Structures are given as structure tokens and as C-alpha cells.
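Backbones bend. We report:
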Amino acid sequence: MKKIIIIALVLFLVTNLYSQQKITLEECFESAIVHHPIYAQKALQLEKSELEKEQFRKDLLPQFTMSGRASYQSEVISLPIEMPQLDIPELSKDQYRLALDINQAIYRGGIYQKQRELENLDQILQQLEVDKNLYNIKNDVKTLFFSIILLDHQKKIVLTYQDRVTAKLKEIESLVEEGVALQSSADRLKVEQLSISQQLKEIAIQRLALINNLEQLTKMELSGTTELIVSTVEIDDNDQQRLEFQYLMAAQRKLEFSKELIDARKLPMVSAFATGGYGRPGYNYLSDQFSEFWMVGINLQWKILNWNRFNDQKKVLDLNINMIETQKDDFELTINMALNKMMAEIEKTENLLKDDPEMIRLRKSIAENASNELNQGVITSSAYIDELQLLSQAEINMKIHEIQLINSKMDYLNILGKL
């Protein structure tokens, strides 16, 4: 029973370790975006937008203003008559006033609702700006990811090439011992072995540098990763979802709504007010005594003439909307041209891949013939190595074309904004 438990535990650990050694491109995308410093701006912008809308709401609350004043003036109100029977008080030239003013908005033409909606549109623009910057990070991740995959495939092919050279070296060394082949033939193969070892070291160093950069972007632990996985890419349609285009459309919506805010400012505004205070004089200007005073009322403000400024502001907004429309047309033209160019690249790579298997088959046949000729002393080991290198290069070219095809399709999706 204990043995069964230990075996099960070992299998679990091995399976868990194996699963940890694989990583997908989508996982790298998600991790790079979430851990990028710009990502924090999304929450900060949302908090800022809520504070802005809270400020608009507070404009609807009663506004309290405390004011005070002390002054001395050259003359005051006086009556130009003298009556012995009547004591006419003389007002003081020094005056004092302390008052509290309260103002409550009653009707503002719907400005509050328009301001809130305009802030929502502005917040959408800010979020799209952040999303654009984050989306560009995906391309950096993709470039590193595919570079690592390419090196991994190159390493596998080089290792296969190394096995072929090693196998042939054993054959030649046997022939040298029998006196059928020259030692120089074996030495050339040994030199090629050293060259292969150098290539593998270069690949390891390059891969480590790429892994380190990918770790910097994604904040993932990738040093133990032995396999990078990219799913099959299919191109379904040409409907573009570029964030730049969405940004332009959102900017147009904001400008359109700004015209509604201008219309709201044309309407009359009604508010209630109340004032209470203490000073000398009060509202009875013929009294020279300190007294309390108060006043309540309704205030009406209506800009019935502003020399056509509102209409001019709306014309400016319309011009900006038309300018953005031209930017959208230019952007669509650029996108379509980029799509055509990338589709041509995809078709070219697909055509190359059709010929690659036949080229590899022929190169294998040539290399096998060269191997037999080397054993028979018809050709030198250098000629054999040349044929092996050509076979290895053909195999590498096929892997390059396979990776290029996937990468080109992802570039196509990237142009559409669907990466």
C-alpha cells in the first residue's frame, strides 16, 4: 500500500512539474498586460472619473458662503434739512458687515446630466488610450515568444545534425582502423562536431537572453520552461477592431454630446437664495445701530444675447468632428493596405511550405548517397559535411516557414486589432 502511495505521489509531482514546464502565448499576453505599470492607470482613471462626477453632483447641493467687510467712507447718506422738533441721526462713516449667503440651484437646464455623460465619454477615451498602449505590449511579447520557439526548433535540428555527424564519425573511425579511410576524413568530422557544439552554446545564450526579456515583460518564472506553445491561428474575416479606430469614434461621440451641453447652457437658470447677517448699517440705511438683517428670494439668469457665441462654439465642434472623420478614412486606407501586404506574405509562405517536404526528401537522399560515397572513398568528408549542412538547413527552413506562417497570421490579426 505504501509503495502504491509513493508511486502515485511521484507521478503527481512529475505530472505537475511537466505542466509547469509549458507556457502559452495567451498566458504571456495576459501576464504582461496585468503586470505592466500602465495597467494601474485603468483603476486610477476610473477613480478620477468618479470624483469628477461627484463634484458635478455637489453643484446641486446648497452653496454656503460666509463674507465679512469693514470699511470707512468719505460720506454717508444725510438729509439736507434741519428740523428743531426732529432729531435726525447722523450715520457713521465706518461700516461693518458679517453675512452668510445660501444659494440653492432649482433649474439648470439639465447641465448636471450632460456633465455626467460627458465625463463618462471622457473616461471611455482615457481607458481606450491606456488599452492602446497595453495592446502594443502584445506585439513585443509575440516577437520574443516566436524568437524563442524558432531557437528551440533550430536546436532540435542541430542536435539531429550532431547525431548524424557523430554516427558518421564512428563509421569513418572504423574504416581508418581498417586502413580503408584517411585520418583526415575523421578529423574533419571532429572539427564539425566542435562547430556544432559552438552553435548549441550560441543558441543557449541567445535563448537565455530572450527568456530574461520575456520574464521582464510578463513577470513570469520562465527559466524552467522547456516548451512554448502557440495555438493554431485562423483568419475568419476582415472586420477590424482596432482600438485607434474605436478611440476616434469615441472622440466624435464626445464632440457630438458637447453640442448638447452648449444647448443646455442656453436655457435659463433658476436658483433660490437666502442671506442673513449682522452689521452696521443693516437693511435700514437710516439707522446707525448694529442690527440683524436677512433676505430670501428667487434668482433668474438667462443669457438672451451672447453675440452668437454658442453657435460659433458648435461650428467649431462640427469642424473637429469632420476632421476626425478624415482621420478615420485615412486610418481605414492604411489598414487595408497593410492587410493586403500581409496577406501576400501569408500566401508566399504557404507556397514555400508546399515545396519544403520535397526539398527535405531530396536532400536526405543526396546526403545518404554522399554517405555511401564517403565510405567508398569517392568523396571527401568535407563534401559529405556540405551535403549534411544543406539537409540541416532545409529542415531549418521548413521550421522557419512554419513559424513565419503562424507569425504572419498573427500579424494579420494584429492589424485587425484582434491579437
Notes: The first helix runs from residue 2 to 20. The first strand starts at residue 22 and ends at 24. Helices lie at 2-20, 25-35, 40-58, 111-177, 183-218, 243-266, 309-375, 381-416.
